[in-house]
Amino acid sequence: MLHHGWRYSGDVPPPSVVSARDLRVAFGSRTALDGMSLEVHPGRVTSLLGPNGAGKTTFIRCCTGLVEPDAGTLALFGHAPGSAQVLPRVGLMPQQTGAWSQIAPRQLLTYLSKLYADPLPTDSLMTALGIHAFASTPYRRLSGGQQQLVNLAGALIGRPDVVFLDEPTAGLDVRMKRSVWDLVGRVRDAGVAVLLTTHDMHEAENLADDVHIIDRGRITLQGTVKELTRNGDLESVFLAHTSPAEADA
Ligand SMILES: Nc1ncnc2c1ncn2[C@@H]1O[C@H](COP(=O)(O)OP(=O)(O)OP(=O)(O)O)[C@@H](O)[C@H]1O
């Protein structure tokens, strides 16, 4: 895998935190990324929208060093994904994590906070996400939505410079969804680069600065929400730039 170095010319927009060019990933005969290119900038929410199986999670796995692309270039802060220079600056909220199981949210977040040099205060993070109400309940006994909130807290506690949120509000009720939007907005305003995937067009319209539509492993459209919704809502744009999910071979 090749990696870009910094080439900052002082132009607007600010330098990319994530720079991906022509990424290709195949799992056996199945192509997950088919020449994907995308830039993520600091202080912006970049939303990656695509049908089921389009390659969104695979892209996040590449960015966090969990999957190595077969071809293309990918750099975070000018370094290789998963490298020692990058890892302390990255937060990841995966779609699912069963790993915590017996641990209660307060214990977990206190533990995670000790892994970082300058963590967010655990209490205020728990307050922002409404975690106090179930802070002492083992993770495995939490509802799916409560687990999502703990996963999000885990992604943010280390004050990352870039955070990858894989469907952060899937399964959340309206009130909790709004708390998450509010927190993500504040994280963005603090200068963090946020990449999030969602199937909720309303969420993307409300929260995202930049939108990238991915279909069958490649970006079919990108722009700001304003640019993309000039002639219609995001759902119509999404439908016009994606294809129905492919049946298994
Ligand atoms: N570990 C793997 N082994 C084999 N195939 C995989 C693996 N991970 C992903 N794929 C395949 O790669 C393609 C892209 O999957 P990916 O999970 O990235 O899609 P996605 O856009 O995140 O989908 P969703 O919206 O359903 O979460 C799919 O066809 C999927 O079946």
Please, could you describe this protein's structure?
This protein is α/β, with parallel strands linked by helices and 249 residues long. It has a single domain (42-66, 80-240), classed as Rossmann fold. The protein contains eight helices and nine strands. A six-stranded mixed sheet has the order 5-6-7-3-8-9, sandwiched between helices. It has a three-stranded antiparallel sheet with strand order 2-1-4, with helices on one face. The longest helix is centred in the C-terminal third of the chain and has 16 residues, at 174-189. The radius of gyration is 18 Å and the shape is globular. The two termini are 28 Å apart. Residues 1-11 have low confidence and may be disordered. Residues 27, 30, 32, 50, 52-58 line the site of adenosine-5'-triphosphate.
Annotate the secondary structure layout.
Layout: E1 18-27, E2 30-40, E3 45-49, H1 56-63, E4 71-76, E5 90-93, H2 105-113, H3 122-128, H4 144-156, E6 162-166, H5 174-189, E7 193-197, H6 201-207, E8 210-215, E9 218-224, H7 225-228, H8 234-240
Parallel strand pairs: 3-7, 3-8, 5-6, 6-7
Antiparallel strand pairs: 1-2, 1-4, 8-9
